[in-house]
Design goal:
With about 325 residues, the protein is an alpha/beta fold. About 45% of the residues lie in helices and about 20% in strands. Helix 4 packs across helix 10 (about 305-320). The structure holds 5'-O-[(R)-(carboxyoxy)(hydroxy)phosphoryl]adenosine and zinc ion. Its main location: cytoplasm.
């Protein structure tokens, strides 16, 4: 089955072609980051309009890469939520329109299920069951995964998501959107020994996270340094480093705990923040102490992309799921 995957939930237009026998055939992405950067964050209306402009050319692009015509598609999967409603509607209506015209099944997919299954596109995918750490701009979750659609939430953030915390810390440090990669780059020049930030909620049992206190701690530290006239480039780098170490450490402590609790030896890490190199190092350390292996998506499939949606959709379509004709789904909040 050849499945076209469409992702338009936020600020990336992603399209891919996945063949359930041959694997990933093609993928293409248009990022809106540069467009939103001057506003310091995603502007929903601009996002929707840009998805409208980019989506059909990207679909033609992946079909061309795979030397295929639209008629050869067997099904279409799109991100139905969670995300920005206008942005979601572009993908949903395009998917439903094309599927109706071609007379093929179409299915709305949960964006986080896409992230969760992205490591399955790699050469040595993890076997079920595994523990997954989902860390994106909107989510921080630990999930026990026993199979496609068999997910048990083990813990999640009670306030900010890890990516959101990175983005806010970046703003405090005067860095552009999206903050995560920029904080990481600045942290490279930071002295790891100068400051130690708290590891929230690690001193009590449980697998939930909280990052809002760390955000406040970061702001207070920056203000104090500024008040003493000490907020130079080195100090900003030191703050970035202390912040990044604290987030990475906190996530690693909880992952180790989740592996202990479940007795599983496979840890999957996905979502935008999984691109963070220091986080990966901390997770490798934590997992190796338990003899566990860590699995990631390749770099460009850590952040939003069409391939993960094509894959997740294909698995569910194979199991017989599909949207009712004309019932396109755009679900901004979808637990
Ligand atoms: O999964 P994603 O592309 O979109 C959502 O579904 O949210 O994740 C985006 C988030 C942003 O908050 C971004 O700052 C963060 O992932 N991010 C990073 C890195 N790359 C992206 N955070 C830390 N370090 C990175 N290298
Ligand atoms: Zn995402």
């Amino acid at each position: 089955m050849r499945v076209l995957g469409i992702e338009t939930s936020c600020d990336e237009t992603g399209v891919a072609l996945y063949d359930t026998q041959r694997g990933l055939l093609a993928d293409a992405l248009h990022s809106q980051i540069a467009m939103h950067a001057e506003y310091g964050g995603v502007v929903p209306e601009l996002a929707s309009r840009d998805h409208t402009r980019r989506l059909l050319p990207l679909i033609d692009n992946v079909l061309e890469q795979a030397s295929m015509g639209r008629q050869q598609l067997d099904a279409i999967a799109y991100t139905a939520g969670p995300g920005l409603v206008g942005a979601l509607m572009v993908g949903a209506s395009t998917a439903h329109g094309m599927a109706r015209a071609l007379g093929i099944p179409v299915l709305g997919v949960h964006h986080m299920e896409g992230h969760l299954l992205a490591p399955m596109l790699e050469n040595e995918p993890p076997d079920f069951p595994f523990v997954a750490l989902l860390v994106s701009g909107g989510h921080t979750q630990l999930v026990r995964v026993d199979g496609i659609g068999r997910y048990q939430l083990l813990g999640e953030s009670v306030d900010d998501a890890a990516g959101e915390a990175f983005d806010k810390a970046a703003k405090m440090l005067g860095l552009d959107y999206p903050g995560g990669p920029r904080v990481a780059a600045l942290a490279e020049h930071g002295d790891p020994g100068r400051m130690r930030f708290p590891r929230p909620m690690t001193d009590r049992p449980g697998l939930d996270f909280s990052f809002s206190g760390l955000k406040t701690h970061t702001l207070t530290t920056i203000r104090e340094l500024d008040g003493r006239g000490q907020l130079d480039d080195q100090a900003r780098a030191d703050v970035a480093r202390a912040f990044e170490e604290a987030v990475a450490d906190t996530l690693a402590i909880k992952c180790r705990r989740a592996l202990e609790q479940t007795g599983l030896a496979r840890l999957v890490v996905a979502g935008g923040v999984s691109a963070n190199v220091r986080l990966r190092a901390r997770l490798e350390e934590a997992a190796s102490k338990r003899g566990a292996r860590v699995y990631y998506p390749r770099g460009r499939f850590c952040t939003d992309n069409g391939a993960m949606i094509a894959y997740a959709g294909a698995q569910r379509l194979l199991a017989g799921e599909q949207d009712e004709v004309g019932q396109m789904k755009a679900v901004p909040r979808w637990p």
